[in-house]
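Hey,
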Amino acid sequence: MTISAFILKNALRNKRRALLSVSSVAASLFLLVTLQVALRELTQPPESSGAELRVAVRNKISLTNPLPARQRGVIERIPGVAGVTPFTWFGGKYKNEGGMTFAQFAIDPKALGTVFNDAKMDAAGYIAFNQQKDSCVIGKITAEKYGLKPGDRFSLESTVYPGSLTFRVAGIYSGTPDDRNMLFRQDYLDDSIGMPGYVGMWWLKVKSAAGMPRVIAAVNKAFENTSAEVRAESERAFQLGFISMLGNIKALVASLSTVVVFTLVLVSASTMSMAIRERFRELAILKALGFRRRELFAFILAESFGLAVAGAVIGIGAAYCLYTFGDISKMTHGIFVTFEVTPRIIGFSAMVAALLGIVSAIAPSLSVARMSVVNGLKTLD
């Protein structure tokens, strides 16, 4: 019998225990990969095309405080600004659903091709959106979910404004990192149930990335010491600031990951210790035959490492296949659009599995090292 066959035979001696050990490692690493991917999606939102030229302008006090519409004229006169649009949250529910499943924002229809130029749509959609006051454009994901197409009409009941609004679909856009949102006209909101003279916030398009710092400084200074001071920042900074409102996500996910890994180490170490204790007599015979401590440690390490690697292949592989080829938007009910299992996450999880195999072998190896041949032979199988 070869050494590798000897190790494999010992690892599979108790097939039920081996299966449970591999399953526990696989399940824990699947959960670990899920937590790491979710953390990445929450803290590193994807940047859309043209994001490096966009600036978000909100009320300095709070994102929920509106801004006066008269600010637009001042912003448009600032050197370096290529386009400006209001961006007002509507908060509508579709067909009396329990909650909002997609976001809706009121904008200037001309901004769709300038400020938000990453949203791609056919020419007929742009024309209809500019000509029909009650029109809207919808992201491809939402349109497919509800079976909406250009020309369809539907109503949304707002959770922010009193009453509801009826919209006509002008077009379906795609090409953005999140093709779920709905965009409609600010003037339609103002004329219906909105607050004429106020907007939620502003989005700007600057002419060059080099000029962005000057534009941001100029916008902040233009409304300094007024009744509606603003905070201008890049799109990336705005996204990260919005995410920070959710709390310390990193600390929460790190805590959960630590608990998962710690529990897994305890379970694996206990399983290996139990398996080795049952074989003390055999290991004592190996000692008597001349096998040295480091060779016995290598046997135990190979067995522990092999079980950990088998669990890692199953757990990490299952997570990769599910999140790469599965419909994440459907599985998460629209919370996430994509779940990217990056090489870094795979490498980190594989490293955890490798360390698990090593750590689990330490305690039983020490027990074997301290065991004398006489005492080992007295041990009952």
